[in-house]
Fold this protein.
Amino acid sequence: MRNCVLGLLFVLIAVPSVRADEDPCAGEMMRHYENGGGQIGPNVRIKGNVYISSQARVCDNAVIMGNVRIMDYATVYDNAHVTGDQVVITHNARVYGSSVVEGTAVIAGNSRVHGYARVTESAFMQGHSQAYENAWVHGNAKLENSGQVFGNAEVFGDAGVSSNGKVYGEAKVGGRVKVGLHVQIRGRAILTGGINLSGNPVNDAIIESF
């Protein structure tokens, strides 16, 4: 009897990288923007005193309005809206998805604003911080290092999230609260005042309210 050999076929499926780590404007017919020399795509809407420096890019259906500066290697794309009196997107920051940056917010470093997140008023982001999903970061709030705000969470006032700290779910963090060193604020937790959750006694803590 003839031996039958069953060959196993292994199919390698390449999982696409997150677009934010690729060239987000690849394939677009880019042109140089007159104020700063940066590149913009054909469907971008720009109005006001917008400056786009020579290495920065804006593409897809992004809308840039008001007194906005997009500097260094920063990129704004997808359906993002950037508008305000003195917004700065700089370094290697990326703003994309259907996110909104407005007011006098600064997005710097390797920060990412995406999903439906809003970063408004005088909020500041730097390092590898992220605001995404339906997060709202406003007031004078700061996201630094690898701080993250996501879900329906809100960070406001003079609060700060840094050093792998996370605020998510329906949580609200305001006042002068500092969240860091892997601390997680989630659920329906509400923290205000001058609490510092970045010290050694609360490393890796999870604060949750239902």
Confidence is low (pLDDT under 50) at residues 1-20. The CA atoms of residues 90 and 185 lie 28 Å apart.
